[in-house]
Design goal:
The protein has 354 residues and is an alpha+beta fold. It folds into four domains: 72 residues, no CATH class; 73 residues, Arc Repressor Mutant, subunit A (Orthogonal Bundle); 33 residues, no CATH class; 144 residues, Trna Endonuclease, Chain: A, domain 1 (3-Layer(aba) Sandwich), CATH 3.40.1350. It is built from twelve helices and 15 strands. Strands 9-12-13-14-15 form a five-stranded mixed beta sheet, sandwiched between helices. A two-stranded antiparallel ribbon has the order 1-2. A two-stranded antiparallel sheet has the order 3-4. Strand 5 and strand 6 form a beta hairpin. Helix 9 crosses helix 11. The longest helix is centred in the last third of the chain and has 18 residues. It starts with 8 loop residues before the first helix and ends with a helix.
Length: 354
């Protein structure tokens, strides 16, 4: 009959069942109820022998037997199947174990009965799964578990954590998560948090929400939980100003993007006004020849500890002929114009009209 014929793996798989028994002739496709029937057909019609087929236990390929029960398709597969022999430097094998199965080097080493350093050597050589880096020394690892274990052992602290998506920019970020940290952050940083507070979907533009915040601030000041003069310095990268609140940041960006010439007065002390026994530096000043348009950004909490002072400021600046005093916020102060927080377009139209 001669040597066993050659057929592609795809053809053999197509002609056999789940038990690796022939269901049709691999040469012409003639079907039969039994594997023996296919073998007899092949010997009669194609003058060959396909009487015995087996699947290699190592490479999983279908091969023709040689008159006895076969386990491996070649001597190489037989040697290769032995635990720890050659597999540790097989790139395909390591890549499958690390990338697809997510195993650590120590797991693979245990499976192959070799030292874990041996696995590390070949994983690094083939640059397999080096997408995880230690945040302290930038050493790369094939898995998150590897980074976590390394950091605990080498740097003395746990970095176990998870990823979260920033609500503003949509970037993926990593955050530690332990016994005392059960909630994910919502934003990448203060910039994304501040940016999220602008736009029509800003929850703080709800009047009920603002009133609730104001009541909370007043209560906090009364109980001493928040000190008078409390500020939250915020860098506005686009303008280069360091403002005192996210509300001021919104006005700063609004004026800057509308090409209105203005000065942020809160920290630069561009101009001060003498009022009784103190001086006052308004938040924003738009100089027009010998006249100043002043924009004061105020939330409800300020009225608890500065009410008398703010009323003196309002009375003085509205009585002057060289100033127009605009209050933007939630407080009821004496002023030339009062714009509710959230009505940026109204504020811009007013300033442009003046």
């Amino acid at each position: 009959m001669g040597e066993k014929p050659y057929f592609t793996q795809e053809r053999l798989e197509d002609c056999t069942d789940e038990n690796d028994e022939f269901i049709k002739c691999p040469e012409c496709g003639q079907e039969s109820d039994t594997s023996r029937g296919v073998s007899m057909h092949y010997g009669y019609k194609h003058e060959g022998s396909i009487g015995y087929l087996f699947r290699c236990e190592e490479c999983d390929r279908l091969k023709f037997g040689h008159g006895q029960k076969n386990t491996f398709c070649s001597k190489w597969c037989e040697i290769y199947s032995k635990v720890g022999t050659f597999k540790h430097f097989d790139e395909d094998y390591l890549r499958r174990k690390v990338v697809e199965e997510g195993l650590r080097a120590v797991d693979i080493a245990e499976e192959l009965d070799v030292q874990k350093g041996t696995i590390h050597k070949w994983v690094r050589k083939y640059e397999i799964g080096n997408e995880y880096s230690c945040p302290s020394c930038e050493k790369s690892f094939a898995s998150k578990q590897g980074v976590s274990k390394h950091h605990q052992e080498k740097h003395g602290e746990s970095i176990k954590g998870s990823t979260y998506t920033c609500k503003h920019c949509g970037d993926e970020n990593w955050t530690p998560k332990g016994e005392n940290n059960h909630k994910y952050p919502e934003y990448c940083d203060d910039d994304c948090w501040g940016a999220s507070m602008s736009g029509e979907d800003n929850p703080n533009k709800s009047k009920e929400r603002r009133e609730k915040i104001s009541r909370g601030l007043i209560q906090a000041y009364a109980e001493g939980r928040k000190k008078a003069g409390y500020r939250n310095p915020t860098e506005v990268e686009e303008t280069g100003h360091t403002v005192d609140s996210t509300w001021e940041k919104e006005v700063d960006l609004l004026l800057h993007r509308s090409d209105i010439e203005y000065e942020y007065n809160g920290r630069s002390e561009y101009k001060r006004y003498e009022i009784d026994d103190f001086t006052h530096a308004p938040d924003f000043i738009i100089p027009i020849e010998d006249h100043d348009i002043i924009i004061e950004v105020k939330g409800g909490g300020v009225m608890y500890f500065q009410e008398d002072k703010m009323r003196k400021i309002g009375k003085e600046l509205t009585s002057r002929n060289d100033t127009t005093y605009i209050v933007y916020g939630d407080v009821d102060l004496e002023c030339d114009y009062h714009i509710e927080y959230g009505a940026e377009e109204e504020l811009l139209d007013l300033v442009s009209g003046l």
